[in-house]
């Protein structure tokens, strides 16, 4: 409960940002520090915060306690890729000592909403509107929602978001969101976009909109300084990939990630800041398919894939899955850093599917180029 948290407010995102700069974990950036200051203001305003309950307390009835006349505004942060939006939002979320807080990739949040809708319909076979029930369940769980990479790509999501967010705002849930687009560009050129415009208006009214104007693309700078295809396998290569993961996720806390796809769980042992690190056998020796790999490609802008073996007839299923995985990564412009037992042309030389593997070799070669590495991820 909040009563246990009030006295824990100290420091905040600005102090934490400055400490990371002082310790050499981050480069000093005036635009990032300005955003950290903006987040600090919100952090300070949250001290002692508790969403009003639906009922009126006896103190309010007697006029002994004033209600907040204006709801506390959250923040919508947008800007170009690689500038540090997610990192700064994470600093904020980590420092707020609420128990009821949630940091989630926006695509994962939409998956969770759909799962809650399905659960509601299973419990109400005669029909009914799931949104009020789902909004209440989220608000009961969470006072602070931090969304990474807010974007809208289909009409189904566009149609439900307005009512969903309006319900969360009405229940005084504080929302932070990062996006690569200003609110006015969300679902741009989408089908029946006119029905989505009230959601854009809601965002601009209920959230402070802030553009992070940092000039440098730190992510691209780091990627261009890295060797992205390593062979042969060995301890040095393993150490290099560990170091690359650390450099690409500097300022973030790595966690194990679980991706839900049609009831299946895909485990990514290490993930942070849009970077996933996983072994070949976890993705290609398991019974995964195109939908699973597409979800991975949407989730991460960079995938570090370890220990790709040489393949032949004995591993033809793994080889086919590997082709499907690379196709998904390539089509969604995911940066691939990998370690392999051989150069691309020598990974699969004998057996059924050699011709198809030649196309994969071409893509693996292209994915090492500066031109490819400079392309925006599908979510950007």
Task: Describe the structure in your own words.
About 45% of the residues lie in helices and about 15% in strands. By secondary structure, it is α/β, with parallel strands linked by helices. The protein folds into two domains: about 210 residues, Rossmann fold, CATH 3.40.50.300; about 160 residues, Rossmann fold, CATH 3.40.50. It has a six-stranded mixed β-sheet with strand order 6-11-10-9-8-7, sandwiched between helices. Helix 2 runs parallel beside helix 4, helix 5 crosses helix 6 and helix 6 packs across helix 7. The N terminus is likely disordered.
Summed up:
The chain is α/β, with parallel strands linked by helices and 380 residues long. It has two domains: 210 residues, P-loop containing nucleotide triphosphate hydrolases (Rossmann fold, 3-Layer(aba) Sandwich), CATH 3.40.50; 156 residues, 3-Layer(aba) Sandwich (Rossmann fold), CATH 3.40.50. Helix content is 44%, strand content 16%.
Q: How many H/I helices?
A: 15
The portion of residues assigned to helices is 40-55%
Query: Class of the largest domain in CATH?
Result: Alpha Beta
Give the overall form: globular
The tally of structural domains comes to 2
Q: Cα distance, first to last residue?
A: 37 Å
């Amino acid at each position: 409960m909040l009563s246990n948290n009030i006295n824990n407010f100290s420091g905040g995102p600005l102090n934490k940002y400055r400490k990371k700069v002082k310790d050499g974990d981050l480069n000093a950036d005036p635009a990032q520090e300005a955003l950290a200051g903006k987040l600090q203001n919100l952090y300070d305003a949250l001290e002692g915060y508790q969403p009003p309950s639906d009922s009126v307390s006896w103190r309010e009835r007697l006029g002994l306690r004033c209600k907040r006349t204006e709801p506390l505004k959250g923040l919508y942060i947008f800007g170009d890729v690689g500038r540090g939006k997610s990192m700064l939002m994470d600093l904020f979320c980590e420092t707020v000592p609420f128990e009821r807080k949630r940091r989630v990739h926006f695509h994962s949040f939409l998956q969770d909403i759909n799962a809650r809708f399905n659960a509601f319909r299973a419990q109400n076979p005669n029909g009914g509107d799931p949104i009020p029930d789902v909004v209440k369940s989220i608000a009961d769980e969470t006072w602070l929602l931090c969304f990474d990479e807010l974007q809208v790509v289909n009409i189904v999501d566009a149609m439900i978001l307005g009512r969903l967010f309006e319900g969360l705002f009405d229940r005084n849930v504080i929302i932070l969101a990062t996006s690569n687009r200003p609110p006015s560009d969300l679902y741009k050129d989408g089908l029946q976009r006119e029905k989505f415009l009230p959601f854009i208006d809601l965002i601009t009214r209920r959230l402070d909109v802030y553009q992070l104007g940092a000039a440098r693309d730190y992510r691209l700078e780091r990627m261009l300084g890295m060797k992205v295809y390593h062979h042969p396998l060995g301890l040095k290569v393993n150490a290099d990939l560990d170091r690359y993961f650390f450099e690409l996720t500097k300022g973030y806390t790595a966690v194990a990630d679980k991706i839900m796809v049609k009831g299946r769980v895909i485990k990514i042992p290490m993930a942070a800041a849009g970077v996933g690190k996983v072994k070949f056998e976890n993705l290609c020796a398991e019974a995964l398919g195109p939908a699973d790999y597409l979800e991975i490609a949407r989730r991460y802008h960079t995938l570090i894939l370890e220990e790709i073996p040489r393949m032949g007839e004995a591993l033809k299923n793994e080889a086919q899955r590997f082709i499907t995985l690379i196709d998904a990564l390539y089509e969604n412009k995911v940066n691939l850093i990998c370690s392999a037992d051989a150069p691309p042309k020598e990974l699969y030389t004998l057996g059924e599917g050699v011709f198809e593997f030649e196309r994969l070799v071409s893509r693996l070669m292209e994915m090492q180029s500066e031109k490819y590495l400079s392309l925006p991820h599908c979510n950007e």
